[in-house]
Amino acid sequence: MKKRLLVALVIIFTMVFSVQAGFAASSNIEELPNIKILATGGTIAGSAASSTQMTGYKAGAIGIQVLIDAVPQMKEYANVSGEQVCKISSNNMTDEIWLQIGKRVNELLADKNVDGIVITHGTDTLEETAYFLNLVVKSDKPVVIVGAMRPATAISADGPVNLLNAVRLAASKEAIGKGVLIAMNDEINGARDATKTNTTHVSTFKAPELGYLGYINNGKPYFYRESTRKHTNQSEFDIKNLKELPVVEIVYGRAGENRVIVDAIAASGAKGIIYAGTGNGSIHNAAEAGLIEAQKKDLVIVRTSRTGNGTVINSLPKWDDEHFLKGDSLSPHKARILLSLALTKTNDLNEIQRMFNEY
Questions:
Q1: H or E element: which one contains 84?
Q2: Which of 73, 189, 326, 333 has a CA-to-CA distance to 166 between 20 and 30 Å?
């Protein structure tokens, strides 16, 4: 009789514990932040013919659900769901896809049930997409862009741990209000200053002079600095009703330059030119003559540097007289993005220069 009673009590306690554990697990799931992953393709979703093939693979071949299923550890940090935006190699990124991503991110972040966004992306133009979103996202909630330097099929693929860390970062309170972030190789970079610095190394993204924002150590983000420039919900740029972006082209300064490219751009209907000058944004005499004529045709001219570091905030008097604007520390390809967005709001050169000073 006592044995039967003991067995019955054990069964009852087991059932009660199981129910409580079930409630606890359910409660934990509900308490986890909700992170949406938007997939665009890239190396992180790349597929190669063998596990040792690190180049020449097909980018964007693997769908987002497969990537999510491959990293079940993400579910310990967030309730994760995925959405496939496109499947491209990021060298083929377009303004149209940028607008699509930007509008979708804003739509999702306006939902109280979404706590953060992760975007999987190819590394070729990752920094450009990051900076575009840094200027158009209207929320303090974390937006983290992640990629990989080795395809998903590689023997030592970096994509899975990068994706896990991106979700950890997007789910963290520390990332709130920091602007759009790049999470790769256990490093946290800011969208404005980071650039791809190596063609193949996994540690390719760096902000050479200004440095990382922080690190992800053993799954936890640690921040050491943040950008002082305007971003996300501080930004004045609104893409809600935009269907296209004004065309802005880049001219690369060099020895022996002529004005052929400048003249072609001016005749193409473009609205602006970013001049990637030598040194401190210096302009070759031949190109200068073409830029002066282009400015008189109402193209906005912005000087930047091809060096990759430093600022273009000073100017020769003659360039000021010709109303050439200064791109500050932005790379030529990021200056193109800012000018394009600026031109959706104004053609006033003083206002556009203010934007370059603030963003």
A1: strand 79-88
A2: 333
Give how far Cα 94 sits from Cα of 90, 97, 103, 126, 252, Å. 9, 5, 14, 12, 21
Q: Is 231 within 8 Å of 134 (Cβ atoms)?
A: yes
**43 noted as active-site residue:** yes
Give the sheet arrangement for strand 248-252, strand by strand. Answer: 248-252, 272-277, 300-305, 325-326
How do residues 186-219 score in pLDDT, each as one tens digit? 999 999 999 999 999 999 999 999 999 999 999 9
Give the C-alpha distances (Å, rounded to integers) separating 227 from 21, 120, 155, 211, 354: 43, 23, 36, 11, 17
Check whether domain 248-358 has CATH 3.40.50.40, yes or no: yes
Domains 33-234 and 248-358 belong to one CATH topology: yes
Residues in the chain: 359
Bridging pattern class, strands 272-277 and 300-305: parallel
Choosing from 14, 40, 43, 153, which is the catalytic residue? 43
46-82 pLDDT, tens digit per residue, is 998 888 888 888 898 999 999 999 999 999 999 999 9
Please give the DSSP secondary-structure letter assigned to residue 30. H
**CB of 275 within 8 A of CB of 287?**
yes
- Residue 316: which region, alpha, beta or left (left: phi > 0; alpha: psi -120 to 50)? beta
Domain spans, the chain: 33-234, 248-358
What CATH code would you report for 33-234?
Answer: 3.40.50.1170
Is the pTM here over 0.85, yes or no? Answer: yes
User: Burial, 100: exposed, middle or buried (Cβ in 10 Å; 0-12, 13-18, 19+)?
Assistant: middle
